[in-house]
Amino acid sequence: MERKHIIKEIFNMAKRDFTLTFSLAIILILIIFSIFPQYIAKYDFYDVDLSLRLNPPSLDYPFGTDFLGRDILSMIIWGSRIALIITIWPTLISATIGVAIGILSGYVGGVFDDIVMRGVDILMSFPSLLLALGIISVLGPGITNAMIAVTIGRISSYVRLSRSLTFSVKETGFVEYAKALGASRTRIMLRYIFPNVLTPIIVQITFSMPGTLLNVASLSFLGLGGKPPTPDWGVLMQQSRIYLLYAPWAAIIPGIAIFLVAFSFNTIGEALRDIVDPRRKYIRMV
Amino acid sequence: MWKYILKRLGYFIPTIVGVSIITFTLVRLIPGDPVEIVLGQHATAEVVDIYRRQLGLDRPIYIQYIIWLKRMIRGDWGVSMISNAKVTYLIFHRFMYTVQLAIFSMAIVSSIGLLFGVIAAYKVGSKIDKGLRFLSIFGWSIPSFLAGLVFIYIFALRLKLFPAIGAGEIKHLILPAFTLSTWGVSYIGRMTRGSLLEIVGQDFVTTAQAKGLTRKRIWLKHILRNGLLPVVTMLGMQFGWFLGGSFIVETIFSFPGIGFLTTTSVLNRDYTVVQGAILFIAIIYCTTNLVVDILYAFLDPRIRYEKRV
């Protein structure tokens, strides 16, 4: 299937599938929130008012307030940019590095391929969050370091996928022709192999997003990622956790926000997969 | 068969060596001089020098690795920088709790997950199938820290049915195990459904239909027997995940397992414990995968009879 038809096809599917429409809407809202939080959020995220602490949901504060009297809804809106950043950057960077290594390894083959695959096997023998914890103990806590840690853990799945795709593309006629015409290795990889492995990789990227978000948010929740007073959703949950009995909304609403975004990326990923190639199995990491 | 097992073992050992190299590298990369951390900033240069030589830190890096590896193989994993307890003791003690939680969660995942998967595949395309598909994406996307907090709020704080923290009795396992299983049930459910439907499309099922067997019989005799085989691998891998300790769930429930030990040690910068925990969890994880692969070889006649065919 050609790539420009994919978007059209997604919207066609959305007409029939309510869950997909809902998911597309959630992602759209997330993007709008993250571009213009200042026009949408009613309050600033450092608007501390202790007289309002742990207020239940009301008209003024639709999702209630947290232990510093900050409006939860406004915090969610301010935090959506962070949510988008921590989802997109680790995914894109790990995909870029992984695909580059994967194509090179699949095309060059030989000893290089063996070494790469051994490395991937070793990296994959760590549960993803464990590797992230190890890397954070080296780099120290912080949102950037949490993103780096998650990025490193996610490279290997892209290496595997793009390598196996390269193997199948390598044997097709047009690569042979290009070689016969004297195209250089770099040119073959960039102009002939890369465009032909891209579609499944885009699906894998979509599938990988919820896992990335959950991993970085988990690290923030553990106190190893973002630091207060940033309105990172994971940080909000971590801070409000101890008030669970008195103000469940303060901890649970940011969690629901994370869930909705993860859920939407998953639904869109499923739809993309159904359109592009229903048979291939993608690696989903959580 | 034996060839397959040997090959798989030959795969296992380099992986473990690689895992140990990564763990060693990570610990060496931690900023700060280990000698200074142990002796404090006011130690004289001479003392520092002696200590450094004692630890072998003046030797080239690969010799340091070999010294370190020998020590780890001997079982000398050092002592915790915070509590001074032996790291091996800490890990073993905490691991026992994680094993309890893992077994309990596994029971939930394998029963409910398999049931959902089989029902969804048997009723493929129906309302039930669609509902289960929705539920599985739902369970897949729910962060364990959200599920954990919601369970604590409802079942521990409001209804007061189960304790939110602690360990040692069955009642302590219930909430963490269900939190841990939300993801596993969705995963196993989906995989079971997919694996069964793959079998449905195969020729021998058409043959069975042509023979005039009833649908129930085809499912029991042909589809389930073949389709559940790959699920065994997935269940095994899931068990490996659980045995590695779940960092989030154990932390939320203050459950004293290996995952909680790891997160607290990272937060406290207790590097000897972090090193031990990373190495231990990775080894457990690789070993479970090895056992699962070998088990699968025994279960799958295509591998079992490989030599004779």
Can you describe this structure?
The complex is a heterodimer of chains A (286) and B (309). Chain A is mainly alpha-helical. Chain A has one domain (3-285): MetI-like (MetI-like fold). In chain A, 73% of the residues lie in helices and 0% in strands. Chain A contains eleven helices and no strands. In chain A, α1 (3-16) crosses α11, α4 packs antiparallel against α9 and α7 packs antiparallel against α9. The longest helix of chain A is centred in the first third of the chain and has 37 residues, at 72-108. By secondary structure, chain B is mainly alpha-helical. Chain B has one domain (87-308): Orthogonal Bundle (MetI-like fold). Chain B has helices at residues 2-29, 34-39, 45-55, 61-74, 87-122, 127-141, 144-158, 170-200, 203-210, 215-227, 229-243, 247-252, 258-268, 271-299, 301-304. In chain B, α6 packs across α8 and α11 packs antiparallel against α14. The mean pLDDT of chain B is 85. Classes of the chains: A mainly alpha (286), B mainly alpha (309). The interface between A and B is large, with 47 and 46 residues.
